[in-house]
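Input (structure):
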C-alpha cells in the first residue's frame, strides 16, 4: 500500500502538510514545507530500500540538520543525504494538528504497528540508542517526569510543562543539586564557571583553580585569566562505505583553490565485485565532504598524500587482488588541467599495507611496507627515491 504515514503535522485550516514521514514498500520519504515570503512549497527527501515489511520490529532514527538528512535502521550504517533544499530554520505550527499513523484521521493510515515515537530536538538519537544488543527493539529512555504528563491544559489553552530548562544561570548564588537537578548545568555568571550536577554535588566542567564554597569543594574558572574554553568533539558527518575502511588521509592542495580532500581506502569489493576507494572534497557551501573521484583499488590498506616540488601525489597501498598478494600499488599525480588524480607510476608490492613519505634535504623518499607474498611474511620492504621524475629503488629492508 502506498502513502502510509508514520506521523504528520498538518495545518488544519488550509489542509497543508507541514511535516511528515511517509512510507512506501521501496522508499521512506521525509516531507517538510518551505516558505519564502508569500510562496510555499513542499520538499521531499527520499531514502531508498529501508525494508520494513518482514513481520519484524525495526528501529528507525531520522536525524535532520539544516542541509543534512541521515537515516539509521536497526543501528546499522547510516544513509546520509545532502539536500539542495535545506530544512527551514523556523517552521510555524500555529493552528496545526499532530497525527500519528496517518495524514489525517482517515487518510494515509499506517497499516503496521508503532511502538514508540520520540521527537528529540537539537540532538541525534542514534548516539543514545546505538550500539544496542537488540537494535530492532531499542527504546529511547524517556525521563519519568515527561512520562507523567497528562497532555491536558489545566486552566488555560497553554500546556504548562512541570519541568524547566537544563541550564541554570545565577550570580554567585548556588542552586541546589539534588536528584531533581541531576545532569543539569549551572553557569555561575559571577565566577564565569560552568558546573554539572552529579549526584548531590556540582562538578566543574572546566579545569581551573580550586575554591571552597560552604562545605563543598568547587573548581572555579576565570575565562578572562585562564582563557579556557569548553572543548568537546561531536559527530559532524557519517560517510557510507561499501566495505571495511582501513585507511584515511586528509590533505590540502592550495594551488587548486584550497581544496581539502578526504581519501578513504576500502578493503573489500562491492556487491558488483568492484573495488573502489573514494576521494572526497570538502564543500564550503554544504560544510560536508562530498564524493569527488572514485579510484580502482585492490584491497586498499592505506593512502599517503605528499608534495614534491609543487606537485601533489597520492599513493595507495594495494594489499591483494583476490588471493594474489603480488600486485602493483599505484602512485597518482594531481592534474591541474583535468582537476583529477591520474595514475603516474606503478610499484610492484607484496601485500602492501602502508606508505610513508619523507624528505632528507632536497631528496624525496617514499617507503612501502610489504606484509605477505602469498606464502610467507618474511620478505623485504622497499625505500624509493625520486630521481628523473619517478621513484626509483634506493634500499631494501628485511
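Output (sequence):
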Amino acid at each position: 500500500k502506498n502513502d502510509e504515514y508514520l506521523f504528520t503535522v498538518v495545518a488544519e485550516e488550509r489542509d497543508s502538510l507541514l511535516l511528515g514521514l511517509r512510507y512506501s514498500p521501496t522508499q521512506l520519504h521525509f516531507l517538510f514545507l518551505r516558505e519564502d515570503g508569500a510562496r510555499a512549497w513542499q520538499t521531499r527527501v527520499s531514502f531508498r530500500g529501508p525494508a520494513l515489511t518482514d513481520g519484524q520490529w525495526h528501529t528507525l532514527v531520522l536525524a535532520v540538520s539544516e542541509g543534512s538528512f541521515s537515516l539509521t535502521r536497526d543501528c546499522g550504517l547510516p544513509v546520509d543525504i545532502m539536500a539542495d533544499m535545506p530544512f527551514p530554520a523556523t517552521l510555524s505550527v500555529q493552528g496545526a494538528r499532530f497525527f500519528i499513523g496517518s495524514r489525517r484521521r482517515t487518510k494515509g493510515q499506517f497499516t503496521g504497528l508503532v511502538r514508540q515515537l520520540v521527537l528529540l530536538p537539537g540532538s541525534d538519537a542514534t548516539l543514545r540508542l546505538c550500539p544496542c544488543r537488540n537494535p530492532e527493539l531499542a527504546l529511547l529512555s524517556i525521563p519519568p517526569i515527561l512520562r507523567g504528563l497528562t497532555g491536558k491544559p489545566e486552566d488555560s489553552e497553554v500546556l504548562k510543562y512541570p519541568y524547566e530548562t537544563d541550564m541554570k544561570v545565577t550570580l554567585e548564588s548556588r542552586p541546589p543539586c539534588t536528584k531533581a537537578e541531576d545532569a543539569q548545568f549551572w553557569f555561575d555568571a559571577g565566577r564565569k564557571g560552568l558546573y554539572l550536577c552529579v549526584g548531590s554535588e556540582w562538578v566543574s566542567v572546566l579545569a581551573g583553580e580550586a575554591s571552597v564554597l560552604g562545605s563543598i569543594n568547587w573548581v572555579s574558572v576565570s575565562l578572562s585569566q585562564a582563557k579556557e574554553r569548553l572543548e568537546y568533539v561531536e559527530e559532524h558527518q557519517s560517510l557510507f562505505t561499501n566495505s571495511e575502511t582501513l585507511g584515511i588521509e586528509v590533505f590540502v592542495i592550495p594551488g587548486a583553490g584550497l581544496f581539502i580532500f578526504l581519501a578513504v581506502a576500502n578493503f573489500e569489493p562491492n556487491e558488483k565485485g568492484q573495488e573502489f576507494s573514494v576521494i572526497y572534497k570538502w564543500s564550503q557551501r554544504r560544510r560536508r565532504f562530498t564524493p569527488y573521484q572514485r579510484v580502482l583499488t585492490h584491497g586498499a590498506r592505506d593512502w599517503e598524500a605528499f608534495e614534491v616540488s609543487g606537485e601533489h601525489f597520492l599513493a595507495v597501498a594495494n594489499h591483494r587482488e583476490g588471493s594474489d598478494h603480488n600486485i602493483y600499488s599505484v602512485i597518482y599525480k594531481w592534474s591541474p588541467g583535468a582537476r583529477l588524480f591520474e595514475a603516474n607510476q606503478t610499484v610492484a608490492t607484496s601485500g602492501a599495507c602502508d606508505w610513508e613519505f619523507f624528505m632528507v634535504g632536497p631528496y624525496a623518499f617514499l617507503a612501502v611496507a610489504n606484509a605477505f607474498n602469498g606464502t610467507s611474511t618474511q620478505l623485504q620492504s622497499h625505500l624509493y627515491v625520486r630521481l628523473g621524475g619517478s621513484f626509483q629503488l634506493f634500499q631494501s629492508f628485511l
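Notes: Residues 27 and 48 are 5 Å apart (CA to CA). The chain has three domains: 4-147, 167-226, 245-397.
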